[in-house]
Amino acid sequence: MRAVLVVNPEATSTSSAGRDVLAYALADATELELVETRYRGHAADTGSRATREDFDLVVVHGGDGTVNEVVNGMLRAEPARAEGRPSLSVIPGGSANVFAGALGIPRDPLEAAHRLLHAVEERRGRWLGLGRANGRWFTFNAGVGLDADVVAEVERLRDSGRRVTPWLYSRAAMACYLSSIHREPLLTVHIDDEDPVVGVHAAMISNADPWTYLGRRAVHTNPETSFDTGIGIFALRSMLPHAVSRHVVQMLRDRAKPHGKTLFRRANTGHLRVVCREPLRVQVDGDSLGELSTIDFESVPNALHVVE
């Protein structure tokens, strides 16, 4: 089995010692190439090359942003063989590791590597459905408005030298919320043959549950959504404190399904469109896409094979 290990040395919980241990373990079971990312887009380029050059497996040791890059690279390239593209596996190395968590992969990198080696030996894997936002693939979530503002603010703080932690995310979320509380709603959501949903402040799109993590606490927007269903949407129709706090409490409950008059929610949807009266920020898998006015979200079944 030909494999490439993609390591983001700047990810929150990666280290040179951990990289060496993982590479040694994987090299014992595969014909391994090690790539450390050196520039923005390097992970995507490596994923694309792995598809073109007939690799069997791409292992990502990094955060959700690195995983997203690799997936987009793998799926944009034409495969070298009729059987299709390489499989993907993830060794958590970021701060949230939402995709790995949704797959049930242990947070500890050594435990995750041990599990991966058994999966490789047993040829164990499965197919996942993914989402796309204007053609950009995402594995677990996307968003328009508030959550994309939070992503952009965290990226700004990280670039200024701040360490990314759950506390930093919480602080950024509160600051973005307070700055948007009195804004008028700018979004309209279109789903299939339903009437357009107007008066929306923020839209969060999910391809898996949980939608994200607050530390180790799972955040649920659409508990019915999984890699085997269509995408889901969680759209806020009020930014008033009592409405938002109610939905936050619902999102943090393990089995509750968020609901209420100030919330629009759907699950298992194949396609939806979000239209903004003025360009708003958009994010996919915690990576900012900039400001857009119209975003088409779609669910693509059986898009990616993972070894887990």
Automatic annotation (TrEMBL):
Known cofactor(s): Mg(2+)
Domain of life of the native organism: Bacteria
One MF term in the entry's GO annotations: ATP-dependent diacylglycerol kinase activity
Presence of keyword Transferase: yes
SMART domains tied to this protein: DAGKc
Domain DAGKc stretches: 1-137
The keyword Manganese is assigned to this record: no
Family of the protein in this entry: Belongs to the diacylglycerol/lipid kinase family.
PANTHER family from the UniProt entry: LIPID KINASE YEGS, SPHINGOSINE KINASE
Name listed for the protein in its UniProt record: Diacylglycerol kinase family enzyme
